[in-house]
Specification:
It contains five helices and 30 strands. The chain is mainly beta.
Length: 407
């Protein structure tokens, strides 16, 4: 849509209609944060009661409706579409309306686009810990950079010029970055500063031909578990695996069907996996669209659900895992016997006791936290909508803000 707006200036007007699935998405303030985060520069309607959705008989996310200059609905498309496909249709329609003198560009929509702060952090995504440093990697997502800092917050290195980086992970002698805006994975030399793309071609895969050419679909997080790098491929509802020895990235777990289904890695269903962590043996996945945490036994090649039941089952309920509810969790951290969850739309961090099979709230009042990282008794939290890194002392449960210097 962004490309379409740029290509046609005032001749094409885009109006977003936000018909929320999750309760947290219905709040106008949360929607405003999302509009700023994703740098949306067209009007967005908060259709919290599904009034517009019902008026236009919408059935699926996303749906594109095309309205002519006379206000008539002329076409409808359900699902994603490439710019090339949209451009062909729109240009053909514009030619007709220009010829009829129906295009009027003299009255642009009055609106103000809110800018992102140039200082500090801007919607930080994920955070990773390198115990050997010890050091942190912070995805400063909306500043298009990754910061490497010591545990006291002193920034030692900045990898700039990225496109909306999200996931970060140390391992194999490098820092790995999920460059979500370019649908790519980067490998960075922390000491020397060199960086190279190891997977993806710099743009989102929209067709089978794109996939054949090596394009990826929204890599959202990465996790090193020797000797491979695992990639949460949110756009294709899969986990991919990158083999650094052979320099090959390929689908590894998930059929590509969106849902929650356990089983072998080739048969399991995932739903927009957006967070990855390991306890050194197992992989844990924040499966955001089903508000779930999944456990992947890498050696056995199997996927099992820890908490979560379905695409429309979400809420905020602690207690036994069989009864617990999360709301669009997108971050995890793990240690033997315990998993920490960024319960994003509930604004909380929760602790899962895998042995006792219970979940409890550890800390709250975060702004849609997006990433977690564990170092000793300190749990680092990317407090995304509050543009800061928080640190939870696991012994006292006290929460402090990490003051970053050198940026």
């Amino acid at each position: 849509m962004r490309e379409l707006e740029k290509a046609h200036g005032g001749e094409v007007v885009v109006i977003g209609v936000h018909s929320a699935k999750f309760m947290a998405e219905k709040a106008t303030e949360n929607l405003r944060e999302a509009v700023v985060r994703y740098q949306v520069d067209h009007p967005v309607i908060n259709d919290r009661d599904f009034a517009v959705w019902n008026d236009y008989a919408v059935r699926a996310w996303p749906t594109l409706l095309f309205i002519d200059p006379a206000g008539r609905l002329i076409a409808k498309h359900e699902g994603e579409a490439s710019f090339e496909a949209l451009e062909r249709f729109v240009e053909q329609a514009l030619e007709e309306y220009r010829a009829e003198g129906l295009i009027d560009t003299s009255r642009p929509l009055p609106m103000r686009v809110e800018a992102i702060s140039e200082s500090g952090l801007a919607f930080p995504g994920k955070i990773a810990v390198d115990p050997s440093g010890p050091r942190l990697a912070i995805a400063d997502t909306n500043h298009d950079r990754v910061l490497v800092a010591d545990v006291n917050g002193r920034v030692e290195r900045i990898f700039a010029g990225l496109s909306r980086p999200q996931g970060v992970s140390f391992g194999g002698g490098a820092l790995w970055i999920a460059e979500t805006g370019a649908s790519s994975v980067q490998r960075a030399e922390v000491g020397g500063g060199a960086i190279e793309r190891v997977a993806g071609i710099g743009r989102l895969a929209m067709t089978r031909e794109d996939l054949a050419a090596g394009a990826l679909r929204d890599p959202w997080d990465v996790c090193w578990l020797d000797p491979f790098l695992y990639i949460a491929m949110a756009g294709s509802h899969q986990l991919w695996r990158y083999d650094p020895e052979n320099r090959v990235a390929a689908p590894w777990a998930g059929t590509g069907r969106e849902g929650i289904e356990d089983g072998g890695i080739e048969a399991a269903w995932l739903a927009q996996p957006s967070g990855l962590a390991t306890d050194g043996q197992l992989l844990f996945v924040a499966d955001s669209e089903v508000s779930a945490v999944r456990r992947v036994d890498v050696a056995a090649g199997s996927v099992r659900t820890v908490v979560g039941t379905g695409l429309f089952d979400f809420g905020d309920r602690d207690g036994p895992l069989a009864e617990a509810l999360l709301q669009h969790a997108i971050g995890v951290a793990a240690a033997p016997g315990v998993v920490y969850v960024a319960d994003t739309y509930n604004g909380k961090v929760k602790r899962i006791d895998l042995v006792g099979e219970r979940i409890e709230t550890l800390a709250e009042d975060f702004g849609e936290p997006g990433g977690l990282a564990l170092l000793g008794n300190s749990l680092y939290v990317a407090d995304t909508n509050q543009h800061r890194i928080r640190v939870i002392d696991l012994d006292t449960q006290e929460v402090a803000t990490l003051e970053l210097t050198g940026i």
